């Protein structure tokens, strides 16, 4: 039985990367792998209870966020577990996990590259690149845009970076239709007259919800029945609420907080917007497409991998809230075009981004990667 050790900073249930790790861990467990999931688990709610209830091993790595102390603790754990593969997710785990994995002589080290922080400081970029080239046997980027960034900026070897996109479980549609659109709106005290613009995501600076709020303020007077639905929670919430009050639109914005099931909220929306500064490969866009919503996204890394402008969605410039406001204002005036965008989005996710495809590609990579086979034969 092969052992895989999956190391991530946090197992918070509200993160896209964390959700993919959780689902992949369960899939590999069902396939007969012995799966260990290690996280610093500094945020709640986490996947810890759910994973352990299903028979997976979850390890809490006590950390004070000092890599000089974190690395020796991780080395000790790895020497005890003796995994065949160490799969590290996200910075800084790629750094600490790469160094610890080499010290512990783990046969195969792989990193999982997701959101490529476009504001990463030069020292971190340099360190990331050095560790990638010196410690790792292979890397999995969640999109081609993400691969391009890490190859260009951190100097990852292009021939060692595979691309495996996120996938959506389309059986989730059964959940989508359990709650009707009208029931979803009633629960939020919205009427059929309201035009609901919404977004999903943790309230963090990189998710850039402030730009969406500014754009909404520009269109609110022209669409008095419009409402903005922000689904998620995080450290930026107070700042976003303050901005809404400054712009005199607090009464038109609904902050739902963190939600375990996004589909009732997507059901209530008319238009989905993702204003992030960068993404890996947005699961929320896939979810919006599954609900047959027209999608508007920022023209940036990870989003333009998914959206073909004017075909399955619309792109806007991050520098211009007015451009986003204009796009939102125009969509209700063109219902046929809007419906066409939504249909094309649904077709995109159903044909290209299913969980079954994602699982098959991960399994094939983990079982057949030349880099892995080379090290496991040593």
UniProtKB/TrEMBL annotation:
The keyword rRNA-binding does not apply. Gene3D superfamilies: Glycogen Phosphorylase B (3.40.50.2000). Pfam families: Glyco_transf_4, Glycos_transf_1. Keywords: Glycosyltransferase, Transferase. One of its GO terms (molecular function) is glycosyltransferase activity. The keyword Nuclease does not apply. Residues 15-171 form the Glycosyltransferase subfamily 4-like N-terminal domain. Residues 182-347 form the Glycosyl transferase family domain. This is Glycosyl transferase GTB-type super family. It comes from Termititenax aidoneus.
């Amino acid at each position: 039985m092969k052992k895989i050790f999956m190391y991530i900073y946090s197992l918070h249930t509200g993160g896209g990367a964390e959700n993919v790790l959780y689902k992949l861990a369960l899939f590999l467990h069902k396939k007969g792998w012995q799966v260990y999931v290690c996280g610093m688990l500094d945020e709640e709610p986490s996947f810890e209870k759910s994973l352990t209830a299903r028979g997976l091993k979850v390890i809490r790595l006590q950390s004070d966020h000092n890599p000089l102390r974190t690395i020796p603790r991780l080395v000790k754990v790895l020497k005890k577990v003796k995994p065949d593969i160490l799969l590290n997710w996200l910075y800084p785990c790629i750094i600490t996990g790469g160094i610890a994995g080499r010290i512990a002589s783990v046969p195969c080290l792989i990193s999982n590259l997701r959101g490529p922080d476009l504001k990463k400081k030069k020292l971190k970029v340099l360190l990331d690149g050095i560790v990638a080239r010196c410690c790792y046997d292979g890397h999995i980027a969640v999109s081609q845009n993400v691969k391009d960034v890490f190859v260009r900026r951190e100097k990852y070897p292009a021939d060692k970076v595979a691309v495996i996109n996120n996938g959506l479980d389309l059986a989730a549609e059964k959940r989508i239709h359990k709650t009707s659109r009208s029931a979803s709106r009633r629960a939020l005290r919205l009427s059929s007259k309201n035009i609901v613009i919404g977004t999903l995501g943790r309230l963090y600076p990189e998710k850039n919800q402030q730009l969406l709020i500014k754009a909404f303020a520009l269109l609110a007077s022209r669409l008095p029945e419009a409402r903005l639905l922000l689904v998620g929670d995080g450290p930026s919430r107070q700042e976003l609420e303050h901005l809404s009050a400054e712009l005199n639109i607090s009464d038109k914005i609904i902050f739902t907080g963190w939600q375990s099931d996004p589909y009732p909220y997507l059901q209530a929306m008319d238009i989905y917007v993702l204003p992030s500064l960068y993404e890996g490969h947005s699961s929320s866009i896939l979810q919006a497409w599954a609900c047959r919503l027209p999608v508007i996204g920022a023209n940036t890394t990870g989003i333009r991998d998914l959206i073909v402008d004017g075909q399955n969605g619309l792109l806007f410039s991050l520098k211009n809230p007015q451009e986003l406001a204009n796009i939102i204002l125009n969509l209700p005036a063109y219902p046929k075009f809007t419906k066409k965008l939504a249909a094309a989005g649904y077709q995109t996710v159903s044909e290209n981004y299913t969980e079954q495809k994602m699982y098959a590609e991960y399994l094939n990579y983990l079982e057949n990667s030349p880099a892995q086979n080379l090290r496991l034969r040593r």
